[in-house]
Amino acid sequence: MGNGDAGRIRGLASAAGMYRASPAMSGTRPVARAASTENCSVPFLWGRASDVDRDNLTCEWSVLRSPAGTSPEIVMPTGPGRGPARRKLTALTAPGDYLLQLRVQDGHNTIDKRLKVTVFDPKGRR
What is the distance of C-alpha 92 from the center of its chain? Predict the structure, then answer.
């Protein structure tokens, strides 16, 4: 192992009191899930992310696609239950499909999770 591996070794005790060195996990991609509330007038988005390496994670929602002439917004909700990956989707001014993305980064790797939110008009058409 190179010098960059210093401090990234963990010992595993054996019955004889000896230690066998094994490299700690490094560079593992984070894991992410994305979802939204259903059947509501203002959907909430939530994401969950974890990283086996315990790297600091950043989570960012974005709108990838929306019906023509719309400008949906992703905003931080107020009140309890606010988290780094919980957001409110507003300004859904037209029926149709809105494609969203949750991007999770751990400083080494990036993972994207896409989510489709479908908005129906008052008669149930999209």
Answer: 22
Residues 67 and 97: beta-carbon distance below 8 Å: yes
Residues 45, 63: Cα–Cα separation, whole Å: 12
Give residue-wise pLDDT tens across range 45-100.
Answer: 988 888 888 888 989 999 999 999 999 999 987 766 556 678 889 999 999 999 99
* 6 pLDDT more than 60: no
Look at residue 19 in the predicted model and tell me its pLDDT: 45
Global pTM?
A: 0.71
Give residue 60's Cα distance to chain centre.
7
According to DSSP, the β-strands at 73-75 and 96-105 are: unpaired
Pick the CATH number of 27-119 from 2.60.40.1120, 2.60.40.10, 3.40.640.10, 3.90.79.10: 2.60.40.10
Could you tell me which of 115, 49, 45, 102 has the C-alpha nearest to residue 77?
45
